[in-house]
Inverse folding.
């Protein structure tokens, strides 16, 4: 039957927004979480909304939010991401994926993670509980699906890594053209080392006007979705917010784009927009 193939293929367009957005976390203990001037790249109350489209077809939307809450009796960030199909794409494929992460407000290490997947008839729900403090040289993840796993000290989940990186960029030394960074996350109950290349600075056109960005290319796995290892690009705003502005996937049937269309509650002035 063609329907399972369509659903699986559309997942390569819409639901990959989440894991590939998050591959840009740097080594987890090199730089302090806050810049020396005490600034943060994000604060509680920030909300980012994205449109996911293929050519002129609006196929989906995603929302990323962060709020400060109490988790197990201590203050924590609750980070939330939902990506779903809309319109005719939702009628055909019905994707509605949610990722949540509770992180320590000081170290920004994950405390508890949720992955809730609805893609066609496929369903997946799993949680991860994190322990970063009882081992001196490593962390422990307890998965509701696979049990206990030892990971790199301070390892991030797939969602918290986005926000961790954004704060890291406030103190990270300037990157060199084509500099590669290998990173460690834990995703889909697997240790997930990734490699990313910095591709310089670029100004791109958006609904907000021209935005100055830092451009990155992850090294992706070729095969079912991508033709070459350079078939994905992500642009972050080149200011103190480091917002993901655009993600572009070059896949076998064309290009899929995820563009920022709304924002509120930014920690700093959106100075990357040219005036």
């Amino acid at each position: 039957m063609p329907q399972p193939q369509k659903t699986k293929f559309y997942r390569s367009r819409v639901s990959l927004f989440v894991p590939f957005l998050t591959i840009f976390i740097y080594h987890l203990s090199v730089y302090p979480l806050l810049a020396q001037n005490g600034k943060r790249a994000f604060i509680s109350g920030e909300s980012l909304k994205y449109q996911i489209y293929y050519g002129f077809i609006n196929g989906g939307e995603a929302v990323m939010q962060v709020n400060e809450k109490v988790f197990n009796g201590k203050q924590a960030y609750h980070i939330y991401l939902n990506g779903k199909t809309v319109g005719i794409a939702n009628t055909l494929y019905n994707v509605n994926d949610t990722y949540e992460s509770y992180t320590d407000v000081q170290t920004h290490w994950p405390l508890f993670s949720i992955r809730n997947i609805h893609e066609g008839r496929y369903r997946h729900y799993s949680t991860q509980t994190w322990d970063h403090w009882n081992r001196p040289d490593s962390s422990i993840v307890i998965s509701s699906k696979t049990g206990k796993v030892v990971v790199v000290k301070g390892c991030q989940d797939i969602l918290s890594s986005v926000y961790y990186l954004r704060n890291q960029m406030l103190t990270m030394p300037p990157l060199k053209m084509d500099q590669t960074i290998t990173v460690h996350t834990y995703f889909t109950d697997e240790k997930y080392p990734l490699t990313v290349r910095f591709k310089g600075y670029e100004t791109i056109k958006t609904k907000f006007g021209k935005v100055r960005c830092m451009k990155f290319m992850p090294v992706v796995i070729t095969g079912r979705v991508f033709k070459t290892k350079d078939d994905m690009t992500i642009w972050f705003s080149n200011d103190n917010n480091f917002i993901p502005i655009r993600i572009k996937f070059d896949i076998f049937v064309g290009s899929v784009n995820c563009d920022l269309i709304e924002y509120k509650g930014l920690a700093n002035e959106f100075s990357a927009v040219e005036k």
The first strand starts at residue 47 and ends at 54. The helical segments are 2-11, 17-21, 87-93, 160-168. Residues 2-264 form one domain.
